[in-house]
Amino acid sequence: MKSITACFLFQTRPADGLSPKRRAAFWLWNALVLAGAAIGLGLASLLLATGSYSARVLLLDYLSHPMLLLLNLLPPLVLIALLYAATGRGWLACLLTTLPVLGLSLGNYYKLAFRDDPVIASDLLILGEAGKMAGQYQLFLSGKVLAALLCTAACVVLTALLARGRPRGRFRAVVAAAGLACAVALAPVYASDSIYSANANTQHLNQWSATQQYVSRGLLYPFLHSVKDALPDPPEGYSEREMRELLAQYEDKDIPADKKVNVVGLMLEAFADFSDFEGVEFAQDVYAQYHALEAESYTGTLLTNIFAGGTVDTERAFLTGMGPKDVNYRSNTSSYVWYLKNQGYQTFGGHPCNNWFYNRVNVNRYLGFDEYRFSEDYYGPIFGASPTLNDALFLPDLTETVLDRLEEDEPLFSFSVTYQGHGPYSTDQCWWGEVDSFIGNHGLPQEQRTILANYLGSVQNTQMHLANLVDALRDVEEPVVLVVFGDHKPWLGNSNAVYDAVGVNLFWEELEGFYNYWSTPYLIWANDAAKEAIGHDLVGTGPDISPCFLMNVLFEQLGWEGDAYLQATDGIRREIPVIHVQGRRMTADGALLWDDELTPGQQELVRRFRCLEYYRQHHFSYKS
Fold this sequence. Notes:
Helices cover 51% and strands 8% of the residues. It is α/β, with parallel strands linked by helices. The strands form 2 sheets. Strands 4-3-5-1-6-7-2-8 form an 8-stranded mixed sheet, sandwiched between helices. Strands 9-10-11 form a 3-stranded antiparallel sheet, with no helix packed on it. Helix 2 (20-49) runs antiparallel to helix 7, helix 4 crosses helix 5 (90-115) and helix 12 crosses helix 25 (600-618). The longest helix is centred in the first third of the chain and has 30 residues, at 20-49. The radius of gyration is 29 Å and the shape is elongated. The protein starts with a helix and ends in a 6-residue tail after the last helix.
């Protein structure tokens, strides 16, 4: 017993005269102690990874998924080996491993607690802002934090006592080489999207919540997986200096005081005009109210990047002027919301659904909204436990709120997103009455007729409450402009079964199919006071555009010049009004082309737009 104590516990080198086996046992002992310490640090990280969710439930979930457990424990194991090779001190290697693991775990724990938002790799690029944010909250010592601190402290102390071996050059070189080899071999594993998807662990968490998807995988694993997205590749030919100099040619322009009309934006879930489809046999004029509103509005077509889902793509394109693909909203992000806020506008909105959906609770703050209402903090307590509201409740509440805010001294920018119309739609029950009240199409299977009737009943109901909102705004003395658009075409059965059944061409590589697949309507309406302020009736036909150019069209109609980004992109918008995620481009004369079919000048305009939006994404340019 004494010899074991002497050899293994308090010696920095194996005692003289030990056999090769006992020397090997000495180093094995040190390695096992260090490995145990690394596993302890990994388990402490997993404890904190549960955030405010049930530690008992989630820790059992982690432990029941061996691959997921391994992916969270390997990082501290590899790191402690590398640091042991670098320092030759077990306790120091453990301490230096503890600092990033515990620091990251605590940061993630408190960020989850305060904002229900995990730490990802790109957050390390904005540590200054993170520090400012942390200063707004009162840190607290919970049982989880205390247990994690005690665990990590125990790991360091026990390593100092039990792993005192100090390897020399050759052994350290071997350990370093092995650690580096492991790190290199594991890098593609942590970056792999397919492995990440295969290790979902949402048995007790919501698979539709990005935050809970992250939490379900622990911390160290999803954090390392996010590294590849921290610095997205810039567009081909991107030059930060070039974009800075290009934007310097323009000056952010203030909105003239006499043109500061109130703007109410409303994005309607899955709203599209099916009256263009000859194969749909309408039993009544479902779109009568919307067409009547179009007749007194400035109208056009959006060609969105999404179909049957992905609402936030169109939403954020409108608010930022950027195609939102690959935009990483982890800090204040330049947007037209910020521009209007800096012009003295109230910035407000609401969505009658969960605040974690698309992480709107955090992203909308980053985009400049002063207040945004969700089910958790507003609609649920007022209207009941359901996380979503239909338009019969949501739009009247929005109308009342807008009217109240028009009484304030500051002009209003409001942007809200409806939920009614979200698929899928029932196949066996028509929620809005009788199927025959909406469509004929008696040759279709009854399930398909019911799906279509449910959709048409929803859009008709939405129009009724939209018309009530418009009527309320007609009568106010304050100038108000209303912007309404759909986010994407609706889901109509698996594999687009209903579209196929009524003969809608969805082959989007052709012009007709492109419009059928991607288009939604937009309109811009003004009350009399707004028409007087902007100096025209705001009626007519607008251009067909990508959602990222809708604000350009709005500003043009209002006589606003906007910020430097809007001015710089406006010339591009006039020449290439549609820049689609699928690689299609539409020119000003309506030609639908692939990139390689564009002229060199048109290709340069597309490149310039991609570079401008990349620059805008990474350079916040407003007073926050």
